[in-house]
Amino acid sequence: MSSAPLIDKQKHIASQHQPAGPSSSSSSSTSPSSSMPASLLRNLYIAHFLARWDARMWEFCVGLYMINLWPGSLILPAVYGAVESASIALFGPLVGQLIDGLTYVQILRLWLVTQNLSFIVAGATVIALLLSATLKFTNFTAFISLVALANASGAIGTLSTLAGTILIEREWVVVISEGHPPGVLTEMNSTIRRIDLTCKLLAPVVSGFIISFVSLKASAITLACWNTVAVWLEYFLFMSVYKGIPALGESNLKRVSRFPPVGDVEESTTTPFISPEHVSSVSLGEAPFNVINDGWRKEMDEWLSKAPFIGAWRVYLRQSVVLPGVALALLFFTVLSFGTLMTATLEWDGIPAYVIGLGRGVSAIIGISATFVYPVMQYQISTLRTGLWSIWSQWGCLLVCVGAIWIQSRTLSAYILMAGVALSRIGLWMFDLSVIQQMQDQVAESDRCVVGGVQNSLQSALELLAYVMGIIISNPQDFWKLTLISVAAVTLAAILYSIHIYRVRKHLIHFEKLIVWARWAIRLAKRIYPSARVFLQLYACGIEG
């Protein structure tokens, strides 16, 4: 078969999606400011903000919807979380491979339409459930059917959000920053994460106030209406970025050139492969069973290598950043995240919805600060060491949550729990940025989407296990057990990342610098101790008097 018609056809496909703009030769000579106009970057950030707002509104509200549909139990929030996480765990690698075979425009349309339509259906389903408060008593089958529809819609929306996350965070950001200093990629990563955390800050606060001062129904109506309007603006803004930045068009052409030939599928044969060594062994009178057995094994290996799910995992496991990826995924095996289970538990503890929203907002503000601190630390001590310091700082902050277990007052314990989780966000998001940048730097361009899909799949698989724990330990009074398991998972993640650091750098910390810091701390303590001792003595005398 001649390859000329195929090449012409691929060029024709690419030209349909080629953005208007200067040619590759002219674009290569442009300066960074001209190749990345501020207006286009602003459009990218605004569109990403709108898309993340959709997801963050639903993420916060769904836990409150489910706990109100079945008060006094975490079963519905846990089941929803399990369904959502299972969908990404099972189909995440397939999503990565699917979008690897589509053009940028096709991915945009699939992502935005599916995400917004799913959240509209989910919002409408919740409205129907809230309007029929007695439905679970009068028609339990209809009640379960509507809950299942809400779960399925939310899961589909989350899968489409995953496609958008891979496209923007793992693909477009890297392509746009190519040819510029490394600091450009770091800054874009920080800005994208800052936008996500800003949505995590503002969406729960807005939704919490609507729920507390209007009603749950009003929040569900707002969610459905918002997604109906937002999809058009998001598509317009993303397309303006695609058409205005030539590098994206050039990258799209490379993607099209990698697509498999249309209609040129090789016929497979069931005849096992027999090597010359096997032929000689048979001619010498040896048993042919080994030949057939080896051929069957080769066929099985061939089939496994072509299976999308297995192939994606093989690509992921051969990466040099597999240990940091697993460590990041382990951080999702937690209930200490202002997620569905923790939100539902705080509601059961009597914390008002607007206070939960504000607490989540404070948590997001602390997380946003990580996006400012990360570029500075990354420049000073490298990406690897920034990840090491950040994950252990997260672990230290979560010890506050462990201490909250022994507080007798349920309300005070809940507030201390919220404080510990909020404080840990700076370490969490700095570690997240560190691992993402390591993957961007060390994963080949042809593997980015696949590795991104598997990474999200692994994260969701562990998040699914956290929700399974919530189903097993569904009594809010036993939330302390979930807290201890979550802290244990963070401990394991920190140890795995430390092992990776030791493999790469052959040491974890500079002991000579540690000794200098220790001496400085001792000298400082000696200076402070006399005055502190006098103060304590005066304070004791005042109490006795």
Automatic annotation (TrEMBL):
<protein>
    <recommendedName>
        <fullName>Solute carrier family 40 member</fullName>
    </recommendedName>
</protein>
<keyword id="KW-1133">Transmembrane helix</keyword>
<feature type="transmembrane region" description="Helical">
    <location>
        <begin position="60"/>
        <end position="80"/>
    </location>
</feature>
<feature type="transmembrane region" description="Helical">
    <location>
        <begin position="351"/>
        <end position="374"/>
    </location>
</feature>
<dbReference type="Pfam" id="PF06963">
    <property type="entry name" value="FPN1"/>
</dbReference>
<feature type="transmembrane region" description="Helical">
    <location>
        <begin position="201"/>
        <end position="223"/>
    </location>
</feature>
<feature type="transmembrane region" description="Helical">
    <location>
        <begin position="479"/>
        <end position="499"/>
    </location>
</feature>
<dbReference type="InterPro" id="IPR009716">
    <property type="entry name" value="Ferroportin-1"/>
</dbReference>
<keyword id="KW-0472">Membrane</keyword>
<comment type="function">
    <text>May be involved in iron transport and iron homeostasis.</text>
</comment>
<feature type="transmembrane region" description="Helical">
    <location>
        <begin position="321"/>
        <end position="345"/>
    </location>
</feature>
<feature type="transmembrane region" description="Helical">
    <location>
        <begin position="117"/>
        <end position="137"/>
    </location>
</feature>
<feature type="transmembrane region" description="Helical">
    <location>
        <begin position="413"/>
        <end position="435"/>
    </location>
</feature>
<keyword id="KW-0406">Ion transport</keyword>
<feature type="transmembrane region" description="Helical">
    <location>
        <begin position="386"/>
        <end position="407"/>
    </location>
</feature>
<keyword id="KW-0813">Transport</keyword>
<feature type="region of interest" description="Disordered">
    <location>
        <begin position="1"/>
        <end position="34"/>
    </location>
</feature>
<comment type="similarity">
    <text>Belongs to the ferroportin (FP) (TC 2.A.100) family. SLC40A subfamily.</text>
</comment>
<feature type="compositionally biased region" description="Low complexity">
    <location>
        <begin position="22"/>
        <end position="34"/>
    </location>
</feature>
<dbReference type="InterPro" id="IPR036259">
    <property type="entry name" value="MFS_trans_sf"/>
</dbReference>
<dbReference type="GO" id="GO:0005381">
    <property type="term" value="F:iron ion transmembrane transporter activity"/>
</dbReference>
<feature type="transmembrane region" description="Helical">
    <location>
        <begin position="456"/>
        <end position="473"/>
    </location>
</feature>
<keyword id="KW-0812">Transmembrane</keyword>
<feature type="transmembrane region" description="Helical">
    <location>
        <begin position="143"/>
        <end position="168"/>
    </location>
</feature>
<dbReference type="GO" id="GO:0016020">
    <property type="term" value="C:membrane"/>
</dbReference>
